[in-house]
Design a protein that fits this description.
Mean pLDDT: 88
Number of domains: 1
Helix content: under 10%
Largest sheet: 5 strands, antiparallel
Length: 70
């Protein structure tokens, strides 16, 4: 999994694997989901990042892992 923030393009892209996308769908304004040829999500793009999340400091991203419940 990779997270790429492009400040110049004002966009964020989350890659979920190494499989290439075969189609894309804009699911909400500025939110694009990429699918592989078996309709599995392989990436998510957020355009207009500064407008979608105006209070976010993109240099300080927090990643949190929630433990599994047995």
């Amino acid at each position: 999994m990779k997270l790429k923030v492009d400040e110049q393009a004002d966009a964020l892209y989350l890659t979920l694997g190494e499989v290439p996308a075969s189609r894309s769908e804009e699911v909400a304004p500025g939110i694009i989901v990429d699918y592989d040829d078996q309709d599995r999500v392989v990436g998510i793009e957020m355009l207009y990042l500064s407008k979608q999340a105006p209070q976010t400091d993109i240099r300080r991203l927090l990643f949190e892992t929630v433990p599994k419940v047995p």
